[in-house]
Amino acid sequence: MPDNEDQRSAVRTQARTRLARRAVIDAARDLFIDGGYALTTVAAISKRADVPEPTVYRLFSSKVGILKALLDVSIAGDDEPIAIPQRPEVASLLDESDPLKVLAGFAAITTQINRRIHGIYHVLSRAADSDADATALLTALDEQRSRGQARIVESLHRRHKLRTGLRRREAADIVHALMSPQVYRLLVIDRGWDPERFQQWATEALIQHLT
User: Fold this and answer.
1) Which end of the chain offers a freer environment for a tag, N or C, measured as fewer CB atoms within 10 Å?
2) Which pTM value belongs to this model?
3) How many CA atoms lie within 13 A of 64 on its CB side?
């Protein structure tokens, strides 16, 4: 019986921790977007989330740790501990032999990610101008994005589906540019495109330039 009670207690603790993390992440999203990264304090996040400040530090270590967690959740769309490449919708693309389906699926997934992260990515980009920790986080995020995109290019190359004469590095550069958060923000936020229109344009552009 004590073992069962210990297990129930552990489950309750995990649930409380998860709720606290979500509350902090949600509060941070609002405060970072409304007031910017530099002017938002951990104390303000703690107050908005109704989570004690020591608990916030225990869960995230620092303000940039909160920002990283917020980005991770925004990219994935949830707080499940499953890396993007291991998620079924992404893994299936790497096994797909039809290049048109690969690129259409990739454009759809990337558009969804950009819809979720464009606001907080903008916050991070501005913070990186003056904050070393934010700069390191932005660099790591862009490198992570490059590695993920390279998987798509490699899957096309492996099946001899890349356009004749197009080198893998050049193909990766094209993908990196077309599917960047900056281009999404330029067309969707600044120019007023619907995300669906962006997705269709991105699909057609990827097919045109890569196959």
Assistant:
1) N
2) 0.87
3) 14
